[in-house]
Write the structure tokens for this entry.
Amino acid sequence: MNTMLRKSILGIAGLTVAGGLAAGPLNHQVTTPTPRESAVAVQTKLDTAALIPHGVQGAQSRIDLDDEQTANVKAIIAATKKAGMDERAAVVSIATALQESKLENLGHLGDRNDHDSQGLFQQRPSSGWGTVEQITDPEYATLAFLKGLKQVDGWQDMPLTRAAQTVQVSAYPDHYAQWEQQAADLVAEHWNS
């Protein structure tokens, strides 16, 4: 009886292997991932819950980025790493820069300028953020923003808009929230690149 059971199991296993071999190669296709698929693969390596721990608040905005804006995203991420901060800090920084400048390193805008605000984060020399040359340098501006963020007790546990507002002191404190999803997507795409 034991021998008969053993032969039955081996026979079934043999059919399964043979069937798998026959079906496998016939249906198997080798594909090379596209750049977009590769970016998605990198995204899955990041903990998306850590990027948006409170979920997004309100309607989300999104803009297409040009090469300069993408370079500024990468500069913000590099500065965040240099500051020894995590991906969530990069999300807060990028969302803030999206709101303040649409990730454009703005100089003085003449009559359209808000006081003496300039750069990615619209920081003001007269408020102690640094010189014009400093605040229009993406690395310096990001490090200055992150220095302010580090001084906010419990920023990691705050909704993005509250953390950003505590550093920026904007007249429109709730506007940062609309950029959280795009900021998280950008961090997921570029953090490991």
Q: What stands out?
A: The CA atoms of residues 17 and 128 lie 71 Å apart. The chain has nine helices and no strands. The radius of gyration is 25 Å. Confidence is low (pLDDT under 50) at residues 5-33, 37-44.
